[in-house]
Design goal:
- By secondary structure, this protein is α/β, with parallel strands linked by helices.
- Helix content is 33%, strand content 18%.
- It has a 7-stranded mixed beta sheet, with helices on both faces.
- Helix 4 runs parallel beside helix 17 (336-342), helix 5 (134-148) packs across helix 16 (303-316) and helix 19 crosses helix 21 (409-418).
- It is globular, with a radius of gyration of 27 Å.
């Protein structure tokens, strides 16, 4: 049986982060799916994190868009395609090529990206196609292009294991790239050192050998200080510089403009001198060093400068193109790299070509068009500004949710609502962005898509279908090709399969290619069977079908003279400094078990247990100054907007800075959305927004009452009331948490809305003195709705009540206990959930530690926590350290 299952499994690739893990999926009846890590995939060697492990819970058809929709009515593909083509063609005729735009996504496959870019830049003739990858790694792309001559990632995952020192610069790998972090944890056990440069003491920092909690936006100062120190020590590689690098003298001269003494650097960066000197010494003494950088570096108005400062340190020491030594930008999305390759960014053409006349002419020859776009298009933030001011009159959004994910998201909503024609192609019917669509086009989801993605180490992998396309959903490349044909460009878009698109793309990378590293030429002749069977391969692809693991091994770069460029960079403050009105620096980012705007991970109830609702991390001293208590609802305010989140007081957060996760949408927490608060400041070169620094303040919310509501379906907040409202999926029901600042009238209005149409069989307890209310409604013996509210005191835990929705009928004992909210005879553990895979909470882990479990592995043996995907291992380590500290203190 097991062998049969193994034979029937399909090898595909995880749709979440840039690690690009191989997944082995076994589809069953009624779209059930079991997944496990693909042991043969070089990115993950069989491992998956919590998100990848939960993929099976996300492939149902709940909430899917399964047919084209025009306005509010279902339409045929022929009608929808014709309408999109006509409106785009009319807009082009009247207003020119730059009056239209595509906003695309790192969720698209390379074939989709290629088709979208070809239509916009080649046939429409505008550069106005940009990808949401602009939000996560555009600064690294710009730094690569300046330093290496092209957007080339030098290293490979093997380097992360071969390194003796790994520096994580603004990179919480334990949460954002968990499987790679597992690989580095194993290397650390063999002696590898970890240094984390991050204002927050993240889980990656918690278990590191050294954490530098630098002041926000001082990264350039720190990396420049490191380079100055390397020069002082004589630790730069003069031979490598002489042979392979230009610009060293200019950088050295620029460093002299600032006091580069370790003392001055430590003061400016807000870190302890002893820690800074230790980092400098370790870096100088360790030839095998990898410097990882990710959103913490890139999402900044000085993101390019940060990237260049990191690259400078590596070029000056010759630590590039060697085993275990490189700067390494890690991408956030599954196919951010594919977008970078195919020209999904507004400021590049396909196949790493720029907008020079030679490259444009080459592309025109290849595509058989008169001319391609003459100049770069609008980058993401600029694009939506152009939508707002009417320059863009027709917009096509593919597989992304800008109404949630862009900075100053409130203005983005206003822009979308005023745009004359908005098309959204997506697999989901209801996203915040879909609300603005004039035409909705149903796209395939993960598990149905068929194509390729490229991960952070330049490795191309296949995403293969596990299910037949549902309803009328279609592949994105085909939707684009059909619209292109309806616009009169059928000759350039006549593909009948993703393999044909891929072959054309591979041919383009090799076309008149005399010096571009990105080359997939040997794959241009893949047969359909060869494409189906394509094994993971790194580019540039060699004639034998393999690819080199690392670039620049011969010291040659893709610049005209073959030399890398060191570029002088000076430290600057944030685009918008804090002030008396907004004294805190708001930093936004991810949580462990969620992905982007929840359209996919939101479908997996297990992934909600770790972080069920929006929170704001605040240093205890900052919280005390504003009367904010642990666990209290807290208003986070910026000049752009306000969100309400649960306060988490922690010294893992620097004083003067706060952190708010970015995932929540109107569908799950209308008042808990982070990005409407973020200022739309961007890096002047890369256009990447400064998600990591917006001046902010916090205030206590001071609710007068709270409640929760359980129902089989998700409910929106009752209209017309100013409530904090959250929806949290459970396996058999939806939990809604809410709070208000009104009086009995508000409570009555909420009760009326939530009990309207409820069954007559009800259990009720009401305390008139306090306004407390507990109601449960049963329908044919099954629990149908539960409503608890309180003006004082705590409400009972929700888990048991939520479980009861899965029961076919309630027992008499359950009925009696319903309004108490606690299972008869069962101890309640409402401590934080640590291990999502095995459902292990903190209290159980702490009990195991007290009973003798002395290591993460020991806790795993005793409780099961951390023994599956391993994403919670750093949190278990933190609990272990905290309890040991308590024991030491008690003993003293
Ligand atoms: S680390 Fe997790 S989210 Fe990223 S690709 Fe692997 S399984 Fe998917």
């Amino acid at each position: 049986m097991a062998d049969d299952a193994a034979l029937a499994a399909t090898r595909t690739t995880c749709p979440y982060c840039g690690v690009g893990c191989g997944v082995s999926g076994l589809a069953g009846a009624e779209r059930t799916l079991s997944v496990q890590g693909d042991a043969g995939h070089p990115a993950n060697l069989g491992r998956l994190c919590s998100k990848g492990s939960a993929l099976g819970a996300t492939v149902g058809l709940e909430g899917r868009l399964l047919a084209p929709v025009i306005g509010e009515r279902q339409a045929s593909w022929a009608e929808a395609t014709a309408l999109v083509a006509r409106r785009f063609s009319e807009t082009l005729r009247r207003h020119g090529p730059d009056s239209v735009a595509f906003y695309v996504s790192g969720q698209l496959l390379t074939e989709d990206y290629y088709a979208a870019n070809k239509l916009m830049k080649g046939f429409i003739g505008s550069g106005n196609i940009d990808t949401n990858s602009r939000l996560c790694m555009a600064s690294a792309v710009a730094a690569h292009k300046q330093a290496f001559g092209a957007d080339l990632v030098p290293g490979c995952y093997e380097d992360l294991e071969l390194a003796d020192l790994v520096v994580f610069s603004g990179h919480n790998a334990a949460w954002t790239h968990p499987v790679l972090f597992r690989r580095m944890e194993a290397a650390r056990a063999r002696g590898q050192r970890h240094v984390v440069i991050d204002p927050r003491r993240t889980d990656t920092a918690e278990v590191a050998d050294l954490h530098l909690p630098l002041a926000p936006q001082t990264d350039v100062r720190l990396w420049n200080g490191l380079l100055a120190d390397l020069i002082r020590r004589g630790a730069v590689d003069r031979g490598y510089i002489a042979a392979h690098v230009a610009g060293f003298a200019e950088v050295e001269a620029a460093l002299a403009a600032d006091d580069q003494s370790p003392t001055a650097v430590a003061v400016d960066c807000g870190v302890a001198l002893v820690d800074l000197e230790r980092f400098f010494r370790w870096f100088a003494e360790t030839p095998r060093t990898v410097s990882l950088f990710s959103m913490g570096a890139n999402q900044s108005a000085q993101g390019v400068a940060k990237g260049l400062a990191i690259l400078n340190a590596h070029l000056a020491t010759g630590r590039i193109g060697k085993p275990g030594a490189c700067p390494f930008s890690i991408t956030g999305q599954p196919n951010a790299m594919g977008g970078r390759e195919t020209g999904g960014m507004a400021n590049t053409l396909a196949a790493h070509m720029d907008f020079d006349s030679e490259a444009r002419a080459r592309l025109a020859r290849f595509w058989g068009v008169r001319r391609v776009a003459e100049r770069p298009g609008l980058k993401a933030v600029e694009m939506f500004e152009a939508v707002a001011d009417g320059r863009i009159k027709a917009l096509w959004i593919m597989a992304t949710n800008p109404a949630v994910s862009l900075p100053d998201a409130g203005r983005v909503r206003e822009a979308l609502s005023g745009c004359p024609f908005v098309v959204v192609s997506d697999c989901m019917d209801r996203t915040d962005t879909m609300d603005f669509a004039h035409v909705k086009l149903p796209a395939l989801a993960w598990g149905e898509k068929d194509g390729t993605v490229t991960n952070s180490e330049r490795r191309i992998s296949r995403q293969r279908p596990l299910f037949a396309p549902p309803g009328e959903a279609r592949a994105d490349w085909r939707i684009i090709a059909d619209v292109a044909a309806a616009m009169g460009h059928g000759e350039g878009f006549g593909w009948r399969s993703p393999a044909q698109v891929f072959r054309e793309w591979a041919r383009l990378t090799a076309y008149e290619n005399h010096d571009r590293v990105l080359n997939l030429g040997p794959l241009a002749g893949l047969t359909p069977a060869g494409y189906d069977a394509l094994a993971p391969v790194q580019w540039p692809v060699k004639a034998d079908g393999g690819g080199p693991p690392r670039l620049f091994t011969d010291g040659r770069f893709q610049t005209p003279d073959g030399r890398a460029r060191m570029v002088p960079v000076r430290p600057r403050g944030p685009a918008r400094p804090t002030d008396a009105a907004f004294p805190l620096a708001l930093n936004t980012g991810r949580v462990r078990d969620h992905w982007h705007t929840l359209t996919r991970t939101g479908l997996a109830p297990d992934l909600w247990r770790h972080t069920p609702e929006p929170y704001v991390e605040i240093h205890p001293a900052d919280a005390e100054a504003q009367g904010v208590a642990e666990g209290a609802l807290t208003r986070v305010q910026t000049a752009q907007g306000e969100a309400v989140a649960v306060a988490r007081l922690t010294d893992r957060q620097r004083r003067g800075a706060i952190f708010l996760p970015m995932h929540w949408t109107a569908a799950y927490a209308p008042s808990g959305r982070a990005n409407p608060l973020v200022a739309a400041s961007v890096d002047p070169t890369s256009g990447q927004p400064e998600f990591k620094h917006t001046p902010a303040r916090v205030r206590a919310y001071r609710e007068t009452w709270r409640g929760f509501f359980l129902a089989r379906e998700g409910w929106a907040a009752p209209a017309g009331l100013d409530l904090v409202w959250r929806r949290i999926p459970h396996p058999a029901c939806q939990l809604h948490e809410f709070a208000g600042r009104g009086d009995a009238g508000e409570r009555d209005a909420v009760r009326a809305a939530l009990t309207r149409g409820a069954s007559a069989e009800a259990l009720r307890y009401e305390d008139a003195a306090t306004g407390g209310l507990r109601e449960a409604f049963l329908d044919a013996g099954r629990l149908d709705r539960v409503l608890f509210t309180a003006t004082t005191g705590a409400l009972p835990p929700r888990d048991w009540l939520a479980e009861l929705f899965g029961a076919p009928a309630l027992s008499q004992a359950d009925r009696i206990a319903l309004l108490i909210g606690r299972a008869p005879g069962r101890a309640v553990d409402d401590s934080p959930l640590i291990c999502a895979c095995r459902g292990v909470r903190a209290a159980k882990i702490e009990a195991a530690i007290r009973q003798g479990a002395a290591s993460v592995e020991g806790v795993g043996e005793a409780t099961g926590a951390g023994a599956a995907c391993g994403s919670c291992r750093p949190e278990i380590a933190r609990l272990l350290a905290a309890l040991r500290l308590t024991e030491v203190r008690d003993a003293a």
